[in-house]
Amino acid sequence: MALALAPIEWTEEEYLELEDASETKHEFLDGHVSALPAGEQLPHNAVCGAMIGILADLLRDQRTRAMAGATEAHNTTSFNTGGALRRLIRRGPCRGFTSDQRIHVPRPKKYYTYPDGGVVCGKSQFHPKGGKQMVLMNPSLLFEVLSPRTEKHDRTTKLMLYRQIESLQDVLLVDPKTKTVEHHHRGPRGWKVPVKKHRGAIKVLGGEIQVTELFEGLE
After folding, report:
1. Residue 111 and residue 208: Cα distance in Å, rounded?
2. Average pLDDT taken over every residue of the chain
3. Which of 18, 34, 70, 85 shows the greatest Cβ crowding within 10 Å of its Cβ?
4. Which pTM was predicted?
């Protein structure tokens, strides 16, 4: 959960300067800054995404099972989701990234944050003020793994702002507690009514992922 810093107004330039020099990740929303864990560059995230897919395949083949707990359930679900997406986009024009990747939403408010993971297709575009390829501007898919502490923020503020990203086609809200996935998809006429599933397939990025695969290893 984000930890708010002193209640002062930060400019976008001050935030970016802070973030470039900091070992701790921060979220920025319209002048307000909250502390999170530290980020890495996109190549780091692409490699992590590939490793997640390889390890997920290995664990799946061995039928390894994890004990369910709040933090472990979140991490297992995030790991599984990244692995499922990696298998879907493998050898294609898209690349996955992990929760270390910072993204930027330019409107209606200036917003910088870290999703639990996602995919970018085609050439990555980075914020010119961000430096070091640290601020991705054109994700194609984003996912959030819900938890009691973050669900309200993920479903309201974060989701509303994510939907303003022009390149974004899909948002997945993955709930390990109910083992359901809420799929938000942008069609030719805009964002469609979200679909919630606890089984079956979800169509994203020209392919399909199985809902049950995202919760493998949970009790």
Report:
1. 30
2. 81
3. 85
4. 0.76
